[in-house]
Structures are given as structure tokens and as C-alpha cells.
Amino acid sequence: MNFLEKMMNIDRRWIYLLVGICVLVPLIRPVGLPTSITPYTRALFDYVDKIPADGPAVLISFDFDPSTSPELQPMAQSILRHCFAKDINVMCLGLMPTYIGMIDIALSNVKDEYGAVSGEDFVFLPYVPGVTAVMLSMGESIKNTFIRDYYGVLIDSLPMMQHIRNYDDIAIVVSISGSAMPQSWAVLVGTTYHVRVGVGTTAVSAAEYYSWLQTGQFVGMLGGLKGAAEYENLIESKGYTIEGFRKVATKGMDAQSFVHILMIVLIIIGNIAFFSLRKRSRQI
Amino acid sequence: MSLSPWIWFAALLTLCTFSFLWRDNPFYKFAEHLFVGVSVGYTITILYWNAFLPRVWEPIVINHQFYVLLPTILGILSFAIFFKKISWLIRYPIAFLMGAACGISVPRSFQGYIFRHMQGTITAISPGQSNLLLISNIIMVIGVIATLLYFYFSIEHKGFIGKVANVGIWYIMLAFGAGFGYTVMARVSLLIGRLQFLLHDWLGVID
Known about the structure:
Chain A is α/β, with parallel strands linked by helices. Chain A is built from twelve helices and six strands. Chain B is mainly alpha-helical.
């Protein structure tokens, strides 16, 4: 069996090992490859950046669970940091039971850095069943939809909620999602209540959202770990982070680039092997 | 190295899950079953405290808002599927959900999924944009027409139509390629996240 035949029958565990090495080495010895800012990340950043302090709120919909958190949690935390640094009111929403835990983790990691207080700087909305019903009901009245916040305090009594009634008082809905939830936000809420929608999504879903950006249904998009890294760099460059800010997504981008190079090499080798062997079999 | 027992537990479960890369084994099975059990338990707890108590128990039992009984009964009928004799009762909650969902989503879906995207395609080749963007948009519009034609099966794909449909196939292949590239990025991100947890949170060997 020659080299090409071996390549066609390679044990997949060798590929796992190579991928593992390509991820491990840059994590331990970072190279610091540059990450350029894409226009869609810049658009979302600029939109949030222009919201006045203590004006209309940013509604961050945590539409993901632990299975996609390595990509999406850094995005959510970066947007939270951006808002807290600029005194922008934030509402955190989880439309599925497992999404609630992600809000809890993100707020725990970020709020103390900026001294953000529940009810004054942010509101943690509880889980209420019925995704579509909740989205539409918030358009009528947020207080009647949730009644109490996650901590059991009446929403009516929260200082931040005194001037926030429904989507009229929300500057943007940012759906951080590993599913089709951003489309639901754009179609159900964007279309009905004319509220702007931004999206932070897993890389898997990013490709299908470009058309939504082109139509203007999404203000901007953070696509995968790279989008998260871009937002981290943007908030850091504007001085919205505290000293010792750990750029989780940016640290992973070296490994990301290494694995992509490995994938390209493997695809090229695989194609050469496939076409060479096919040519040889035809000649026989 | 972390001294938190929870970090250690999470790290060991991560290693148990990674062991599947070698082959299926009891450690992986343990982690898998534990994950399913914990997920269900967590969901039930959240539903009980955030849905059942404030949305059903409090309104009916404490506040005597008996109109809440109607949706509650409709919800309970969903469990009829577990009893053969009355399993037909599940049709009522399903019918309600289907009706409501269609009513809510049909007009908005036309607006959001079809009209806005048609509008975006039609207005893409409008004057007043840079040459580069115009070329990009022309390529996009050709792609939309060619791909739509590929999925139009009422005309035989031969001659001019066949050639345009072939262009559509190329566009579809390019979309698959872009999707695959993004998928690699997504999957690798998950691995990076877990290795960062192991190296930073657990072992403390990286910043």
C-alpha cells in the first residue's frame, strides 16, 4: 500500500490527534495572529455604542445552552461589558429553561467588574414558557409578561423598569443564538414592532444570516468565535474593559487558524489521493 | 491547579466524554447518561419554579383566577397520549397550538422570510453604489435566479435552462463549501472551549 492509498484509508483517530495538537500547542504557546474586524461586527458595535446612557435598553436574548457556550458566552459577556461600561440598561432573557443558566454565568462573570446592580443597571428576566407568546407579549407589556424578575422581585418595583414598558423602550434586541431564534426575533418582533435586531451566532449558522444582513433585518452579526474575538478587541480598544480582562475568544483564535490550515492541507491531500487512485484504476 | 471539587468533577466528565474519540466505553456512557439525567432534572426544576408555581398554582389556588383553568386543562390534555383509551384528547391542545402558530406566523413569515428577501434582491442592483459592491450584487442576483431555476422542475433542464440550472448547482456547491468551513470553525471552537477549561480553570497552566 503506497502513501496515497494509506491516506485514503487513514484511521480517523490520527486526524483527531492532529487536531488536538493544533489546538493544544497555540493555547499553551500563543502566536498572536491578528484578527481583523469585519463590517458586520463593527456595525453591531457601533449601534450599541451610540445608545445613550440610561436611555432605551438593550435586550440580550440568551438563546443558547452549554453545548454552544464556548462560542457564544464570550459574545454575550462582551456585549454585557460594553453596556455596563457605558451605563446602558440591559435586560437578559432566556426563552428556554436551559438558557437561564447561561445568563446566570454571564452576569456572575461580568457584573462585579463594573459594579452593575440588579434592577438598576440590568434586569434578569425569568423563564416563561411559550417562546412566540413571550416574544409577542413583550410588545404589549414587559411587566405583565414576567411580573417578577429572576430573583423574585416585582418588575414594577425595579428602578430601571420605570421607563421601560415594551419594545418602544428597547433600542435593540441582540439574539445570541445557536439555533434559528434570531430569525424568529426578526420575523415576529422586528416585523411587528419595528425593533432593531442584532445577532451573535455560532459559526454553523453564520453563513445563512448574510442575506438577513443584506436586507437590513439584522443590524450586525458576530459570527462564531471570530466574531466574539472581534467584539472583545473592539471593547478593549475603546477602553471599556477593566485591567486584567481575559479575552477568552481572542486566545482561542490562534488554535482556530492552526486547525483551519490543517483542514486545508488534509482536504488537498485527500483530493490528490482520491483523483490519483481513480485515474490509476481507470488505466487498469 | 484548581481546588474546587466541582471543577474537578467537570474536568473528569470532560475527559470521560473525550474518551469516545478512542472508542465507545463505560466512562463515556456514564457521562452521557449523567448529562441526560441532569438536563431533564434541571429543566423540570426550572419549569416547576418559573412556570407551574407562578403561572398555574398561584393564580388558581391563591388568587382564585379561575379562568387560568382553561389553558391548564388544555395543557393537561397533552398527557392523554400516555393513556390509550383517551389518547385522542391530545388532538385538542395540538389543534389549538397549530391554529395559533399558523395565525401568528403565516403573515409575518411572508413578510420576513419572503417579501423582505425579494425586496433585498430586487433593490440590490440599484444605482449609487460603489463598482465593487455593484459587481458583488450582480453576482448575488445571478445566483438567486440560477438557484431558483435549478429548483424549478416544471421545465426540463436542457438547453439554455439546463445551463442556467448548472450555474445554480455551482452556487449551491459554493454555499455548501462556505457552510462546511463555518462548521469546522464551530466544532473546533467547542474543542477550544473545553481545552481552555481544562488548561486554565482546572490545571491552571495557561493564562
